[in-house]
Sequence to fold (452 residues):
Amino acid sequence: MASWKLRVENYGKIKSAEIEIAPLTLFVGDNNSGKSYLMSLLWGIENLGVEALLGSEYLESEETDELSEWLISQMKTAIQKKKHIAPLEDISEMLSSVLNKGLEKNKDSFVRRIFNSDNVSIGKLSIDLGDFKGRILDIELNEQTEFLSLSIDSGQTFVIHRTIIESLKDRKYIHSFLIQVLYKRIMDIRTIESDTERVIYLPAARTGFMLTKDIINKVGRNNTFNLPDDREKFTPFVRPINNFLDIMGDLNVGQKKNENYIHLAEDIEREMTDGTIEFSDMPNKEVMYVPDGHKKGIPLRLVSAVVTELCPLILILKHSDNIARFYYEEPEMCLHPQLQSRMGKVIARIVNAGIGMVITTHSDIILQHINNMIKLQNRKDCDEICDRLHYGKEDLLNCDQVRVYQLKARAKGKTVVEELSCGENGFIVPTFNDALDSIMSEAYEIQGDLHE
Fold:
């Protein structure tokens, strides 16, 4: 996964923040401090794509012109030489300038698009693309097809026909398109929202959405197809929630199983739900829970909150493909402490299967499991302990895979965001520890009085 840093100032309650996304990124800290705001912004960058960051129109600036001319010249060189490698370090300043000028121009509309509202403000928004040392643009011409293939750091390839480059018709459109593709590959995000890679937001109110999604869809149809006088008035959901509902609705089409991720879904069912989540054979494709040892399914409205909370994750892992990252709000919701520990195990396995995760959590148990897996990875007797505790390599984590950010409310309602360092035993979260210390001190005083 590409490494870049998000920088914001005066974003909702957040005074300032600098976030580097990792395979596993956790936001912890006070309630109502802005964790979901940060997560929604990161989701927007990955999901809405480069076009939303830069704008759909060609951004008129000296740096943009220089960047597009550089890119065209590299492609023309590749046409002449059949293969060409260009170091991105040569244009690092241009790349940073073009992106951040686009963000400065489009930041308000970008945030409005995420929240479907004008009520969320942002002072500054910028992205640090990181160190380009050693990073290359690789361009190669296939003489038979006359297509040019472009890749960054030997990653995913993009192809374009040589005649488009040589004719330069619709110059600004072509240049804007090529620049968007370049940033897509550098940042490893979408070009536009309709790209096939899945960046999936799992909101906190999962049970409510799963139980009412059909009603929500009905309201949507009424407001789309009825006459204005017959339409129901409603406040729109934020875009990440709409994305979640769309994805859950799409899963009802067909019952194919995704072989890449189904083992992860089966792990959750075996260790946490004591049964399977399936679509019914009825035309409405209702989601059903089938308890272990039973053949007949039970509708979600009749099962426990544990099952309904885990249901979306299980169904997505079973039936969706091309999952790039989950944005998961409070995965501990409705889970007993024992199941929270197992959720930590699920999270590690998802990350090690190549799916990124960004998580908001209040669970010190989930974090402790992650810390345990980091510590275990570095022990000399790792294999012996894994055998004894029934862990595998897919359960282990290292510090480089994880970033933890603590959000703490300060005076005047502003939130300070601090990146926590990973030590030998993992991450220490002061807000968790302070709360536990306070509870234990109270318990000691109260229980002590009882024994006197």
Remarks:
- The chain has a mean pLDDT of 86.
